[in-house]
Design goal:
Layout: E1 4-6, E2 13-15, E3 22-28, E4 31-36, E5 41-44, E6 51-54, H1 57-64, E7 75-79, E8 92-97, E9 103-109, E10 112-117, E11 127-131, E12 134-138, E13 143-150, E14 156-165, E15 182-193, E16 196-207, E17 219-230, E18 238-242, E19 248-252, E20 257-260, E21 271-274, E22 292-295, E23 301-303
Parallel strand pairs: 19-21
Antiparallel strand pairs: 1-2, 3-4, 4-5, 5-6, 7-8, 8-9, 9-10, 11-12, 12-13, 13-14, 15-16, 16-17, 17-18, 19-20, 21-22, 22-23
């Protein structure tokens, strides 16, 4: 990625070049996540030009995952307690994942990595988010609360890990393919939305027969389910399936966010806007491969941009959502 942006829903192209010898690997709000040729990482606000230095996250990954394949493409998901700034107290959680969902979670007080964990229980981490100032993580089946406390020399450490919801009831998802042409797969996303902690489950179909190398390049999103975490102290914590986003629009992918649909100028509520964030080893020529808009009211999927929009791939990274300040 070279700083080329597509404005949604108009499809207008904007360019904000990234620094020399750097490549964009993701985003969070209106910050770009960059990595240079030496492996150093940083966050850059392309409007103010403010920079926040991060550690060499790929080095941390290979240290934690000692048997990791060096050429394995990695996905970085970032989370912060609130809007990011460049103060000394800034805290950034970075989830590093490979295509097989092996993961490592790094807690940083830029530019220093202060704590790293590899697994929660016996499962790998799919996504993380800060909700009401607390860090939550989702695996394939469970929701965890990670307590973060300041320890020696003001370094933030994960002081406790607690499973608060022990199962996700999505195997009974409403969508059932009408043929046996697909192998079903699910991806989980955590999103804070209007004071609610939501789990967004993406059901994809992988076209059969399976190819030897580029299996995920033949996947297509079929359906979404959304669950709200009931975290009230006077009840057993559980997931509750929801059918409405309460006026919000959800954007899911390498970075996920919720915004009021009306303030974004979007014509419909209760919609999930998604990009492809899984086929990283063999990226499709079209960067909008398996991107679209899912309507929760009728279960339909429509293209993310008009079919007449021609987009060429730049680099081998997955597209990411980027939200200018006025949209936040």
């Amino acid at each position: 990625m070279d700083g080329t942006f597509l404005s949604f829903p108009s499809g207008e192209i904007h360019r904000m070049p990234v620094p020399d010898e750097a490549c964009c690997h993701g985003s969070i709000d209106n910050w770009l996540f960059l990595m240079n040729n030496d492996g150093w990482c940083s966050l850059m606000n392309p409007f103010s030009k403010a920079m926040l230095q991060l550690p060499k996250l790929a080095t941390i990954w290979h240290r934690e995952m000692r048997n990791a394949y060096p050429g394995n493409p990695l996905l970085y998901k970032l989370a912060v307690p609130s809007f990011l700034n460049v103060s000394p107290d800034s805290l950034v959680a970075v989830l590093i994942m490979d295509e097989e969902f092996h993961s490592a979670l790094c807690i940083c007080q830029p530019p220093i990595p202060t704590d790293t964990i590899r697994k929660l229980s016996d499962d790998n981490i799919h996504d993380v988010v800060f909700f009401n100032g607390k860090l939550y993580a989702i695996t394939s089946t469970k929701l965890f609360l990670l307590e973060i406390a300041d320890s020696h020399k003001r370094k933030s450490k994960i002081s406790s890990i607690k499973c608060i919801i022990g199962s996700v009831n999505y195997p009974r998802m409403a969508y059932q393919p009408t043929s046996n042409r697909y192998l079903k797969a699910c991806w989980n996303y955590l999103v804070e939305s209007g004071g609610r902690l939501l789990l967004v489950v993406r059901l994809a179909g992988i076209l059969l027969p399976l190819r030897e190398h580029n299996v995920l390049q033949h996947a297509r999103t079929l359906y979404f389910e959304v669950f709200e975490a009931d975290l009230t102290t006077d009840s057993c914590c559980r997931w509750r399936r929801v059918s409405s986003l309460a006026g919000q629009a959800l954007f899911v992918g390498t970075y996920s966010k919720s915004l009021p649909a009306a303030e974004c100028g979007l014509p419909q509520e209760d919609c999930i806007y998604f990009t492809c964030d899984y086929a990283r080893a063999y990226p499709a020529p079209d960067p909008l491969h398996d991107s679209g808009v899912f309507n929760m009211r009728n279960g339909t999927i429509t293209p993310l941009l008009p079919e007449t929009t021609v987009v060429r791939r730049v680099g081998e990274r997955c597209p990411t959502w980027f939200f200018p300040s006025e949209a936040m």
